[in-house]
C-alpha cells in the first residue's frame, strides 16, 4: 500500500468549476489578493501567471524569501518566547518576594497571558485578514516590548498582573500571523520545516535566556535590581526589533517593493500548488460553517490542548521544580538550558523524519513516547541525590493547518479555533500545579499523562480520517471530477 501523505489532504472551499480554454483569467487572483474588488490596485496587474518554474528558479526564489521573511519569523518568535520566559527566570532574581509566597498567585501571572490571548484571538485573526500583515506584526512587537519594559516599574501583584495581561494581548498576533505568512510565501512541502524553524525558538530561549539570566544575577549593586534590569533590557530590544520589522518585512508577495515585478509574479506562481489561496479580505459565511463542521478542526483543537497543557505548566514552574530539588541558581539555569537543547534536537529530528517519510501523524505519535517516559520519571523519582534529580521530558506538536485548510475565511476560523484551544491549554497548565502537592506535583503530572493518552487517540483518529478523505478525493478524480482533479491548478487561487 502506498504511503499516506497526511499533508496532501486539501479541500478547495467552494471552487468555481469553470474551465477556460487557455490558462485562466488573473482577475480570479486579483479578487483574492486585493483589498476589495473595487479598490485601486497598488501592485502589478499580473496578467497570465501560469508559467512553469524551473527547479533552479524555484531555489533562487526560495533563497530570496528565506533572506527576507524567515529571519523575521525566527527572531520574532525567539523574542516572544524570551519575553514570556523572563518571569520564570526572574524567580531566581528574587522578583518581589510577595509574588512568591505560594505557587497559586504565581501561576496566575502565566494564566492571565493566555486568557488575554483567548479573548483577542478571533479579533486578531480578523484584523490579520484585513490589514497589511507586516505593519500590523511590527506594531504589535513595538507595543509588546514597551509593556515588557514597564514590568520593571511593577510594585505589587495587581500591577504586574495587569502588565502580564497586556503582554498577552500584544503577543496574540504572532503565531496566527506566522501561519498565514507560511502559507502565503512557502510551498506546502516547505511549511512544516519553516514552522519548525521558528517554533524551536522555544528551546533557543531556554538556552540563551538561561545564560543571560545568570549574567543578570551578578548585578548586585545599582539603582535598579537585577530583575528590573532584565525586563528593561529585553523590552527595549523588542521595541527596536519591532521598528526594524516595520521597515523590513513585506506585507505580502504582491506588495513586496524589495522584489522585482517579475520575481513577485513568480513567487505567487510557486505557491499555486498549495491550493489554499492568498490573503483575502472578503468574509465568506459559508466557509465558517464548513470550518466548524470539519472534523479536522476538532482534532487540531484537541491536539493543541493536549500538548500545551503539559508544556505551559512545566515551562512556568520549571525553575521552581528544579530549585525544589535543592539546586543552586547556576545549576537551575544549566538544567533549563539542557531542556532547551533537547527541544531543538527533537524538533529538528522530527522535521527530518517528516520530510523523509511524509508521515506527519506517525512521527508525532512516535515523539509522544519520550513524554510518557519523562513524566512517569518525574512522578516517581526519589528526591534523595543529585543524580536522580536530573530528569526531563519533552513534547512535540506539529501544525498541519496552513497546508490542509483552504479558503481564507475557513483558514481564519480554524486558526482561531486552534489558538483558542492553545490558549485554553496554556491557561490551565499552571493551575494544575497545586502548592500542597509540591515538590513532586503528582496531580499535575498525572494530568499530563491523561493528556498524552488522549493525544494518542486523537492522532490515530485523525490519521484514519485523513486517509478516508484522501481516498474519497482520489475516487472523485478517477471519476473525472474537475474540482478534485484540477491537475493544472486552474482554481488554486480561488477562495
UniProtKB/TrEMBL annotation:
Belongs to the major facilitator superfamily. Allantoate permease family. The keyword Transmembrane helix applies. The chain crosses the membrane at residues 106-124, 136-154, 166-186, 198-219, 231-249, 334-354, 361-381, 387-406, 413-434, 440-466. One of its GO terms (molecular function) is cysteine transmembrane transporter activity. Residues 1-29 are annotated as: Disordered. It comes from the Eukaryota. Residues 19-28 have a biased composition (Basic and acidic residues). Coiled coil: none annotated. Its main location: membrane. It is a multi-pass membrane protein. This is MFS transporter. Keywords: Membrane, Transmembrane, Transmembrane helix, Transport. GO terms for cellular component: membrane. PANTHER family: HIGH AFFINITY CYSTEINE TRANSPORTER (PTHR43791:SF63), PERMEASE-RELATED (PTHR43791). Pfam families: MFS_1 (PF07690). It comes from Eremomyces bilateralis CBS 781.70. The keyword Transmembrane helix applies. It is found in: Membrane. Residues 9-18 have a biased composition (Polar residues).
